[in-house]
Design a protein that fits this description.
It is a single chain. The chain contains 17 helices and 25 strands. The protein is α/β, with parallel strands linked by helices. Bound molecules: 5-amino-5-deoxy-1-O-phosphono-D-mannitol.
Length: about 600
């Protein structure tokens, strides 16, 4: 949540920071702002609204300066207003701060600062930071020393950047449990929540560990540990696939990322077979295996659980990451915890994983984003390798997670290569699903755009796909939707079915077909509008979304794709922006 960026170098800073804000917008898009140092002045402009609107409204492109910081906000403390937008300043407007995360003890700090004569102008937790820096600078500290001195006073998780007229020409920053990464290109220095913000300028990056401090000047970049001792760091090369963030000719990232799924499996299977075999053995040997994840990643984990049981004969449990702490008592050194997270930043997961590690568990993570906090915490990381996903709604990363679970489960029976070959051959089936259903889905979305409630049902391995289809629709279209095992419908939810209620029935022609259809019939008898998602025609479908025939365990990967497309088209028909759904952000770094 929230994206921060800083630039210091030879070039005009503001265009670089503005460009970065657009690339960081997936992290939060309710407000945006910028602070720039120019000719002895600290210029600050900010407002509520999407990045492009704020840039236009405040004419931000005209701001001068070679040192600047910027912010895109996802509100946690304080309403979405101009005064709560970042950057925040000290009493004299001489210090500016952008922050991602939450300062949990901000109330106590604020009270102390107010007692000391400081004046606050926002409701945010962040504003304590510039005031604390102000005191340190007044005592004669350098900017980096000020950051080193105040960081231990802040509780919670954060990454922040600060600039000041009192120590101009530099940006200082630090982080704890939130990402901060530095990019270097000759005399130009960048620092951001995500390398994607500057990956068009450089692929040379350096990461900060928790509590380390960085200072950028036109002369270079320096790192310090929490005691202020200088650190020597080597730059690394950023993975090429992570640098790409263009929509190409698509109207939205979500649509592009749905379409990317026709090729993504080729990349996913580029894994080290030995690592998979060893990881699979660790899972098989463990006394208990717990998969922890949130949202779409949790639905992928539910498919994973099914695959582990069906293929590897290994039972495991899936625990929602925000609830994991309440189950942690049974975790010990004979436990394998598999954390699944596109971003590797989700606070609920990070907390659970830390507790599990403390209890002695082995932590294996499945992550997309490189250089994440979760990766640092894990004993073993498997990357999705599917490139950056920008739209808030997970699509290609969900498919990639399913594919990785498929590979892992077949590695349990030493069939990695056969599983890879099957995944590669699925590319063409995914293309077929998209091609043959596109016009049907457009028509369907027009027809159903004003419906208020959707139900998605399926059985067995496809139950999680029903839940994922419903989540996609909720996220991007703001329509109530529920996914459930088909057999559960009659245990309560059937009471909600009225004439015309859309029920999406995922019923591939496998062993679940007849039973799922019986449940669909129960809904149809109450007037439901049945959308059959299947490779087999059924009399009771009002609309039919066609699936290709594939192996039973591969159906989730072909069935989810049209459901993503349906959600996308419903969003478009309802006038919603599918890339930036209201109230949401891609990385959920708060609990
Ligand atoms: O980055 P993560 O996979 O840990 O994120 C988990 C959820 O926040 C995420 O899957 C969310 O549900 C998506 N927006 C779903 O489209």
């Amino acid at each position: 949540m929230c994206g921060i960026i800083g630039y210091c170098g030879q070039k005009p800073a503001v265009p670089i920071v503005l460009d970065a804000l657009k690339r960081l917008e997936y992290r939060g898009y309710d407000s945006a702002g910028i602070a720039s140092l120019s000719d002895g002045e600290l210029l600050i402009r900010k407002d509520a609204g999407k990045v492009d609107d704020v840039i236009r409204k405040l004419n931000l492109a005209s701001l001068p300066g070679n040192v600047a910081i910027g912010h895109t906000r996802w509100a946690t403390h304080g309403a979405v207003t101009q005064s709560n937008a970042h950057p925040h300043t000290d009493c004299g407007g001489r210090v500016a701060v952008v922050h991602n995360g939450i300062v949990e003890n901000n109330r106590q700090l604020r009270q102390g600062l107010i007692a000391g004569g400081h004046k606050f102008t926002s409701e945010t937790d962040t504003e304590v930071i510039p005031h604390l820096v102000e005191d340190e600078l007044r005592n004669g500290c350098s900017l980096e020393q000020a950051v080193l001195n105040i960081a231990p006073k802040l509780e919670g998780s954060y990454a922040f950047l600060v600039i000041s007229l009192g120590d101009p020409g530099k940006i200082a920053g630090t982080r704890r449990n939130n990402p901060l990464i530095v990019g270097i290109n000759g005399p130009d220095y960048y620092v951001s929540s995500d390398a994607l913000a500057f990956s068009q300028y450089t692929n040379q990056v350096m990461s900060l560990e928790d509590n380390e401090v960085v200072v950028l000047t036109r002369e270079g970049v320096e790192f310090f540990d929490a005691r202020g001792c200088k650190l020597v760091k080597q730059a690394r090369k950023l993975d090429h696939s992570w640098a790409e963030s263009s929509k190409d000719s698509y109207q939205h990232f979500m649509l592009k990322e749905i379409m990317d799924q026709t090729q993504v499996l080729d990349q996913i299977v580029r894994q080290d077979e030995k690592t998979f075999t060893e990881t699979a053995l660790d899972i098989l040997r463990a006394r208990q295996v717990i998969i922890t994840a949130c949202g779409s990643s949790r639905y992928a984990a539910l498919v994973g659980r099914y695959l582990f049981s069906k293929v590897g004969k290994k039972f495991c449990d899936v625990v929602m990451a925000s609830e994991f702490g309440y189950f942690a008592d049974s975790v010990d050194k004979n436990t394998v915890v598999i954390a699944v997270s596109q971003s590797g930043e989700t606070a609920d997961i990070i907390d659970g994983v830390k507790a599990a590690k403390d209890a002695g568990a082995q932590v294996i993570s499945i992550i997309n984003r490189p250089n994440s906090i979760l990766a640092d915490l894990s004993h073993q990381v498997i990357y999705l390798n599917c490139g950056a996903e920008i739209a808030v709604a997970a699509t290609k990363t969900f498919l990639s997670q399913l594919a990785l679970f498929y590979l892992l489960s077949f590695s349990m029976i030493n069939d990695f290569n056969e599983a890879s070959a099957k995944l590669i051959s699925l590319n063409s089936e995914i293309s077929k699903v998209l091609d043959c259903n596109k016009s049907e889905l457009i028509t369907l979305s027009q027809k159903l755009k004003d419906k208020n409630d959707f139900y998605y049902i399926a059985r067995g391995i496809n139950f999680a796909i029903a839940s994922e289809g419903a989540l996609k629709l909720k996220e991007v279209s703001y329509v109530h939707a529920e996914g459930m095992p088909a057999g559960e419908l009659k245990h309560g939810t059937l009471a909600l079915i009225e004439p015309g209620t859309p029920v999406v029935v995922i019923c591939p022609a496998d062993y679940t077909f007849n039973e799922t259809l019986s449940n669909a019939m129960e809904a149809k008898s109450r007037g439901a509008y049945i959308i059959g998602v299947s490779d087999k025609e059924g009399d009771l479908y009002d609309s039919w979304v066609r699936l290709p025939q594939v192996d039973e365990l591969l159906y989730p990967m072909v069935a989810v794709v049209p459901l993503q497309l349906l959600a996308y088209y419903v969003a478009i028909n309802r006038g919603c922006d599918p890339d930036k759904p209201r109230n949401l952000a891609k990385s959920v770094t708060v609990k």
